[in-house]
Specification:
By secondary structure, the chain is of the alpha+beta class. It folds into two domains: about 25-135, 3-layer Sandwich (Rieske Iron-sulfur Protein); about 150-410, Naphthalene 1,2-dioxygenase Alpha Subunit, Chain A, domain 1, CATH 3.90.380. It is built from 13 helices and 21 strands. The strands form five sheets. Strands 12, 13, 14, 15, 16, 17, 18 and 21 form an eight-stranded antiparallel beta sheet that branches. It is globular and about 80 Å long. It starts with a helix and ends in a 22-residue tail after the last strand. The structure holds FE2/S2 (inorganic) cluster and fe (ii) ion. The site of FE2/S2 (inorganic) cluster has 9 residues, from loops.
Length: about 425
């Protein structure tokens, strides 16, 4: 349980809040590449942390991201002309290249002016069909973290963005909550499809284990990037445990086992969140239709233009008749189930009214890490500076002897004795 002040600190992301400053210190997947369009496209508006921005792609393919309001006198650059090598504000004609260089200022006689000023452009990198932006104010952005999904052919990758009408933190906490997997997703865990050997390994859930042990022991260990936690369940053979090891990458990313889902939680504002699920398969191309079906995202009305249609007004699309006929949740698929429970927690979950239990340890820990950074961190320094390299962060499902140390299953990930706060 948190105090009201702590809950505000963790959830509010507007421009005058500490969380706003924290999240801006990291590269963020603000857009899909497809949002921006082809070379020479018109500018598009978008929001991040309650602030408005625009993006465009110039004739050379470079994406430019700017504060929406022109740095001259504040007209919206969403109105700007697309001119190939940049965009031109229609108010007084200032023209900006994608990197912020001022190319033309027709209402300024001094020719040297445009060498002395720049537009408010932000550093941009495109990777894995996502547009990553550094919105912070440091002169040098932090190193760019590469994930394994960025290094497979695009046919082996599926990027799914779900827009949810609720605060970002409760969505991310859902991804750090292993004890719901066998309960909320009971039908998936027991389904034929989940055990279908032709599905990628990661979707063949350890169905029986999830279905027979609903109260896993959760063990959390801090790492250089955030933390790992293991949900330890009895493997049913008297000797082993099943360890479901999830990675939390500070501040707003989870890696869900087994190593094929990375989820970024991008707050548009306090109560609107993009959940960007990256799913990949190193061995073979991803069957898009089938994956969407398994996740329940192929249902009409569920996922329209990447916005989840579930709301209190339609009782999150729950089918009561289906429940009476044996369905656990009355919802279809993992994506619909997760969205229903997250959005139904309210626009911003009131964490002063919770009753937390031992299986909530990972949620408690992520709050501790974030609060510690918000209250005591160095606002100029990223939590964990990573060199630009292919990520070795792992999330695994393994069967290990009951007395074995599960952290040895993720040897590439240094487990820190004291990063942030312990326990
Ligand atoms: S407001 Fe954009 S050029 Fe004047
Ligand atoms: Fe879930």
């Amino acid at each position: 349980m948190l105090t009201a002040r702590q809950n505000e600190l963790l959830t509010r992301v507007g421009s005058d809040t500490p969380m706003h400053g924290l999240l801006k210190r990291y590269w963020q997947p603000a857009l899909l590449s497809s949002d921006v369009g082809e070379r020479g496209c018109d500018p598009v508006r978008f929001s991040f942390l309650g602030e408005p921005y625009i993006a465009f792609r110039d004739a050379a393919g470079q994406v430019g991201v700017f504060a929406e309001n022109c740095c001259h006198r504040g007209s919206s650059l969403a109105l700007a002309r697309a001119e190939g090598d940049g965009i031109r504000c229609i108010f007084h004609g200032w023209k900006f290249a994608a990197d912020g260089t001022l190319l033309d200022t027709p209402n300024v006689a001094d020719e040297t002016f445009k060498q002395r000023f720049r537009g408010t452009a932000f550093p941009v990198r495109e990777a894995a069909d996502l547009v990553w932006v550094y919105f912070g104010s440091a002169s040098e952005p932090p190193p760019f973290r590469e994930y394994e999904y960025m290094n497979v052919p695009s046919s082996h990758r599926l990027i799914m963005r779900m827009k949810l009408d609720c605060n970002w933190l409760q969505v991310m906490e859902g991804g750090l909550d292993s004890s719901h997997v066998g309960i909320l997703h009971a039908e998936f865990a027991k389904s034929f499809e989940a055990r279908d050997a032709s599905l990628p390994e990661g979707l063949q859930a350890q169905a029986q284990v999830y279905s027979t042990d609903y109260a896993p022991r959760i063990d959390v260990r801090d790492t250089e990037f955030g933390f790992h936690y293991a949900a330890l369940r009895d493997a049913g053979d008297g000797r082993n445990v099943h360890a479901r090891i999830t990675a939390y990458v500070f501040p707003n990313t989870n890696m869900i086992p087994p190593n094929m889902f990375v989820i970024h939680y991008v707050p548009y504002d306090d109560t609107h969140t993009a959940q960007i699920v990256t799913y990949w398969d190193k061995e073979r191309p991803v069957d898009r239709e089938r994956t969407l079906r398994v996740l329940g995202l192929d249902q009409p009305g569920v996922w329209i233009d990447d916005h989840m249609e579930q709301s209190p007004d339609n009782r999150w699309l729950q089918d009561r008749a289906k429940m009476r006929a044996g369905s656990w949740s009355g919802l279809i698929g993992l994506g619909q189930e997760d969205t229903a429970v997250n959005v139904s927690q309210g626009p911003i979950l009131d964490r002063t009214k919770e009753t937390l239990v031992p299986s909530d340890v990972a949620c408690i820990h992520v709050r501790k890490l974030l609060l510690h950074e918000l209250e005591h961190g160095d606002p100029a320094a990223p939590f964990a500076i990573q060199p630009p390299r292919t990520s070795t962060i792992q999330a695994l499902e393994v069967k290990i002897p009951r007395d074995a140390d599960w952290t040895r299953s993720v040897p590439g990930n240094a487990v820190a004795d004291a990063v942030g706060v312990a326990g």
